[in-house]
Amino acid sequence: MIEFLHIENVAVVKSLDIEFKNGMTALTGETGAGKSIIIDSLNLLSGSRADKELLRTGEIRAEVSAVFSQLRPEVVRSIENLGFDVPEGSVMLSRVLTANGSSARINGKPVTLSVLREISAMLFGIHGQNDNMLLLEPKNHIRILDSYADNNSALEEYSRLYSRVLHLRIELHSLSQDVMEQNRMREMLKYQIDDIDAVKLRNGEEEELEVEAVKLRSAEKISKCCALVDKALNGGKGFGAIYLTDRAATAMDSVAEALPDAERLAQRLSDVRYELEDIAQSLGALSDVGENPTARLDKIEGRLDAIAKLKRKYGSTVEEILAFRKDAADKLDFLDNAEDKKIDLENELAEATRQAKEKAKELSEVRRRAAKGLERKVCETLAFLDMPKVSFEVDIQSTGELNAFGCDSVEFLISANAGEPLMPMARIASGGELARIMLSLKNVINESDGIDTVIFDEIDTGISGKTSRKVGIKLKEIGKGAQVVCVTHSAQIASLATQHLYVSKQEKDGRTESSLKELSTDERVSEIARILGGINITDAQIAAAKEMISDGENY
């Protein structure tokens, strides 16, 4: 159940804290007081679109958060399986709205809106006035029936199979494209492969060639520098650095007996001589640029130019060019073996279609069994809601073709009056009848899906009098097994609530703000009397309100 709701800077709400109780809660107040803002806030927690207009004027941030407690074990397990802790069977959802967008959290942990939607759907459901209109669209009827039949897992399995069918159909269509187009593609792929193969690329070759080219372009400078170093080391006429260092080492060694440090210095000079000799020997390899560096450079630059041309056509690096070549070869192989592959795909498609149709058949059988129970329970509820002569039927037709829901089309048919034929809802149902039909469906489905909190936004639209009273009785009945929150303008409904919250608005510091309070018994009487009508509340309305509240305690 929803235990606590906090709303901050949403429309005319500056800050609002609401504590909900078990059973049925009624939310009433004058038109425009802010009741719809509470519904909008709950919609934000359900992961719906965050309209920037909900942000209170002059504020940069709005927030809605709610604590849900007393969660059923299966709900706790489902939430934990998604990676969230549920301490003491409670979870907190929150949504923050700014001018730049919105963010969501579960127990303080950032989440995507898809995760928020998945978890909120386990916790509460909202039935708004627009939901009644969904009944006029037959495409929504199969979803309602599947919800009652608890077909979620079977639908997930079918969706996987159906996606496979669609994927294979696309592959087969692509393979069966125009023969001339296939031939053009084959010739283009062959040209691309031959063009790349002609250069005989090797990974890492381009980098090696560029290093060698830099060396060859500096061949003359390298030769002069190496000659200079060689002369300095080996010298002319025996006076190079190596010779002089060797003489110095010998001189120091000769006085080693007289000078204690001379032997150490002699050794260091010898080490220097060996290092100089090693450098001199390395000069040959460094200065070797071949017999004809100009010819070698021309060859390298030609090779680099050939690679550059391929890069302009097939990729920015040699690795990308080779990857392009592999992809082209795979496509060519696919085309060359198209007939064999086509046969394989047709066989795969036939098998995938068979499996999908088998699962669709299972779904259809479950739907037909569930439809009978749905028809009976809806008719029972509608009879209680002053539609005693109603006939309700779930018309299931097999299309023979796979679609997103199997092979069925589903439409709800209704006859509101005795002797009248069953017709589609869009042709005969009034606003008040739609409200009652939707309530009966919600009542039946809630029994099967077990959502702990159900929120109704003005379920009384289009109905009045004793029918409103019966709607309230049905809401209170639902409230015995689940928490019910109802926004209403009906005294017949509000007087049945176990908790009555009153929403009002007032001016504070030059700004309009909404506030909320839980009504006491006397305050409830006054509010019910106000809803009953009249500019001035009369003793008769007060008496009627007391009677309605007292009578409501019997249900």
Short overview:
The chain has helices at residues 35-45, 73-81, 113-123, 129-134, 141-149, 152-175, 179-197, 205-217, 219-234, 241-254, 262-287, 293-314, 318-336, 338-384, 425-428, 431-449, 465-478, 491-494, 521-532, 539-552; strands at residues 2-10, 13-19, 24-28, 61-68, 91-98, 101-106, 109-111, 124-127, 391-403, 406-415, 423-424, 453-457, 483-487, 499-508, 511-518. The chain has 555 residues and is of the alpha/beta class.
Order of strands in the sheet with most strands: 2-1-4-5-6-7
Main β sheet profile: 6 strands, antiparallel
N-to-C terminal Cα separation, in Å? 21 Å
Number of DSSP strands? Answer: 15
How does this model look, in words?
With 555 residues, this protein is α/β, with parallel strands linked by helices. It has helices spanning 35-45, 73-81, 113-123, 129-134, 141-149, 152-175, 179-197, 205-217, 219-234, 241-254, 262-287, 293-314, 318-336, 338-384, 425-428, 431-449, 465-478, 491-494, 521-532, 539-552; strands at residues 2-10, 13-19, 24-28, 61-68, 91-98, 101-106, 109-111, 124-127, 391-403, 406-415, 423-424, 453-457, 483-487, 499-508, 511-518. It has a six-stranded antiparallel beta sheet with strand order 2-1-4-5-6-7, covered by helices on one side. Strands 8-12-13-3-14-15 form a six-stranded mixed beta sheet. The model has no long low-confidence stretch (mean pLDDT 87).
